[in-house]
Amino acid sequence: MKQIKYSELNEYKESRIYPIYKDQDICNEIIEKLGFDLNTIVNKEYNQITQIHTLGKLPFPSILFIGLGDSKEITTMKLRKAFETVSKKIKEPMNFIVKQACTDEINIHQITRLFIESHMISQYQEHVIGHDFKNIVDVQMISDEDIQKDIDEAIAYGEGINYARRLADTPSNLMTPVHLVEEAKALADEYGMECTILDKKALEEMKAGGILSVNLGSHIPAYMICLKYTNADTPYTAVIGKGLTFDSGGYNLKGNSLGMKYDMCGGADVLGVMKTLGALKAKANVYGIIPTTENLVSGKAYKPQDVITTLSGKTVEIISTDAEGRLILCDAITYAQQLGATQLIDLATLTGACVSALGDIYTGVFSNNDEYYQEFDKAMKESDEKGWRLPIDEEYFAKLKSHSADFKNSVGKAGAGASVAANFLEAFVEEGTKWIHLDIAGTADNDGTAATGAMVRSVVNMVKE
């Protein structure tokens, strides 16, 4: 995807994408050449598409109009949705008339980034194993104002989000912890990042009992992946993602494990974030940390009422082996702080309770610092991603009181499960460390199919200068 100028249009014979507001008239030159007032037949209502064939009267075969409604009511989020709608119709290369979508509030640089990102996300298709990957159809951006930098930046975001989606969409027999490690190594090589892989032996030497306990039921060893991106003079932020490549629930066996290949979406998102930062050459210092394992049943698997010792030294009584995500995350949170990170963001498909509370529209957001939360809330708004702050409270943590350990990993019954899980994680965050927890259980995939790359854009915008 690249910029083309109006003076170069004669070299391009592809059909045009023409965004149009209700309070706009279609270009007179097009109307005159087609010999018909298109304003009377093109549907300019929001998110409506009208295709007009030029019948040889113009040097390109057709115009795909996308209605944007009232220009005074348009928002960047509404533009994303409209651009995704029109992109789904694109089957062959086309040219997009950028300035037609601009308003007094939304400039040509924003429109360029919005369209390219939306187009790439909309065109993505889950890979059918045994068949070729589906390529994203090329769209050139028509503008005399220089927008190539905007195109390149938007491609970086789009590729980062789609990379996270591809990893999470891959079947769990083809995306094991070993495969995830290889992906991280390849990404580090591509962008010149430092890469540290803590294998089972290293985790045992560290006494990382959280992730090691969850891993007991699997014949595939656990790993702690750590990528280090350095390109600023600021303290390091750690972005941590739950990398459960498959979750059976363990001895608290799930009634239906369909969709559990997506329990690694947090980890996939971390690699998507790191890829985006690398492609942007962003000013940031970031650790990307992924604890990765499977949670399976075997004669060696951990059991309810076991007591484990985490990397922090805190002991945890196991109430539910299906509350495993917090056990691998707590070790990753401790490890991040050992590395010196003073700001933490974790992403995890952590609780069904968050899905019950917020559905698939909003991500659950928790934080131990109001100022840090406000920064992230601003990043979400800039990114057109929806999150809703949910409470953490010492009274929730009190519900995890144990008689045989420092605390339990679960209450074992329904009631504010997302907040209880967040309070569990907060117990591993040291005083003075700023922390945000993103429960993406409802937003990470489309009801067990097709990963979304939820919160990749917001996290990138949060951590980069």
Automatic annotation (TrEMBL):
Top-level taxonomic group: Bacteria
Entry-linked CDD domains: Peptidase_M17 (cd00433)
PROSITE patterns per the UniProt record, alphabetical: CYTOSOL_AP
Keyword Protease attached: yes
GO cellular component: cytoplasm
UniProt feature coiled coil, ranges: none
Protein task: Presumably involved in the processing and regular turnover of intracellular proteins. Catalyzes the removal of unsubstituted N-terminal amino acids from various peptides.
Name of the molecule in the record: Probable cytosol aminopeptidase
